[in-house]
Structure formats: structure tokens, C-alpha cells
């Protein structure tokens, strides 16, 4: 079991490197050349959309939404606007995307959600906004990790009580047999173990 958990942690590190390569903000986005009343072709404005999400430019996102751009459109890596905004630490943009109907439960091609991205980056204000999304609190990515596992992996101890208050199971066992506690033990992370035990983990 320990070897299997170690493989899961290796997969998490790989997912992290993919995030670093694909989610980071790029050059400043310009306002899209929209004609009043125009309905846009999504592919034509993808660059504006995803760059605006990375930079938290709600004004650009809103203008494209008003022109019919699909709010949950994903790029080649499966990143949606809400995933990119969360990863880059734009809680107000994440909140407005949710209010506009964005699905915060969607994962990228590795199954990583916006909440997982925020926890990975340590964007706690954004993570708190995403706690209000109506997602399965024990939703797993392709490696069997949950949001609570991410909080354990990356030392986001302050948000762990809130995750559990929103339904995260401290004893959740993934399809691959991993639990948050096993993650902490494999890391040799005694602080995470102590936090999880206080929160009801076996």
C-alpha cells in the first residue's frame, strides 16, 4: 500500500508540473474586437478568453459572455476559465464566473478541479470561494486525489476544517486505496497527521 501511495504522490507532482506549464498568466490581454450585437465564434476568441481568465479580467470575460461565448469551454489541456482564474489567484473573477453559471466541478484532462488548483497554489481566498460550489467534496482526480488530499499534500492545514465542514471525508479511500492519512504518512508529515487526527481521521 505504501508503494502504491508513493506512486500517487509522484503522479501529483507530475500534475503540478503540467499546471505550472499551462495555467500561468501570459502577456496582458487586450479587449477583444467585438462588434455591438455580434455573436462570437468561440474558436476565434479563445485566446482572449483564456488569457483573460488567467489575468482575472472579468471585463473581458463578461463582454465575451454577452456575445455568446460558452462559459465552460476548455482548452486543449482541459483548463476552463474558472480553473485558470482559480490557479492564478483571482477570487473575485472566480466568484463572478460561478454567479454567471460556470461549472466549478469540471476537471482538466487530469481530473484536477479549480479547487484543487487553488489548493496547489496556496490561493486560500480563492479556495474559500470555491467551497460554496455545489461539487462532490470527495470528488477525485484521475490519480484518486481529493481536495482534502491536496490540502494534505501541500500543507494547507488552515482550510482543512472548512473542507470537512463542507462534506470532505477525512477517511475517504480513493479507488486506488489512498486516504489523506496515508498521504501524510507516506510524506512523513507528522503535522498533517496530527491535524487529520484532530479532524476525525483514523
UniProtKB/TrEMBL annotation:
Protein name, UniProt field: Uncharacterized protein
Keyword Repeat listed: yes
Coiled-coil region(s): none
Keyword Repeat in record: yes
Pfam families: Ank_2
Signal peptide boundaries: 1-24
Species assigned in the record: Cupriavidus plantarum
Segments annotated as ANK repeats: 77-109, 110-142, 143-175
Keywords: ANK repeat, Repeat, Signal
Disordered, as annotated region: 167-190
Biased composition (Polar residues): 176-190
Alphabetized InterPro entries for the sequence: Ankyrin_rpt, Ankyrin_rpt-contain_sf, Dendritic_Spine_Reg/Scaffold
Amino acid at each position: 500500500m505504501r508503494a502504491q501511495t508513493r506512486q500517487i504522490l509522484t503522479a501529483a507532482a507530475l500534475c503540478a508540473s503540467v499546471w505550472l506549464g499551462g495555467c500561468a498568466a501570459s502577456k496582458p490581454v487586450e479587449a477583444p474586437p467585438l462588434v455591438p450585437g455580434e455573436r462570437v465564434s468561440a474558436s476565434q476568441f479563445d485566446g482572449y478568453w483564456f488569457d483573460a481568465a488567467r489575468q482575472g479580467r472579468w471585463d473581458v470575460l463578461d463582454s465575451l459572455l454577452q456575445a455568446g461565448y460558452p462559459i465552460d469551454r476548455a482548452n486543449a489541456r482541459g483548463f476552463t476559465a474558472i480553473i485558470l482564474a482559480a490557479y492564478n489567484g483571482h477570487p473575485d473573477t472566480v466568484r463572478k464566473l460561478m454567479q454567471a453559471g460556470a461549472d466549478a466541478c469540471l476537471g482538466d484532462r487530469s481530473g484536477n478541479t479549480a479547487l484543487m488548483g487553488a489548493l496547489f497554489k496556496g490561493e486560500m481566498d480563492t479556495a474559500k470561494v470555491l467551497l460554496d460550489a455545489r461539487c462532490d467534496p470527495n470528488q477525485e482526480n484521475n490519480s484518486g486525489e481529493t481536495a482534502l488530499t491536496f490540502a494534505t499534500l501541500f500543507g494547507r492545514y488552515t482550510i482543512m476544517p472548512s473542507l470537512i465542514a463542507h462534506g470532505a471525508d477525512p477517511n475517504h479511500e480513493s479507488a486506488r486505496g489512498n486516504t489523506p492519512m496515508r498521504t501524510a504518512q507516506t510524506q512523513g508529515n507528522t503535522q498533517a497527521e496530527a491535524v487529520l487526527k484532530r479532524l476525525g481521521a483514523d
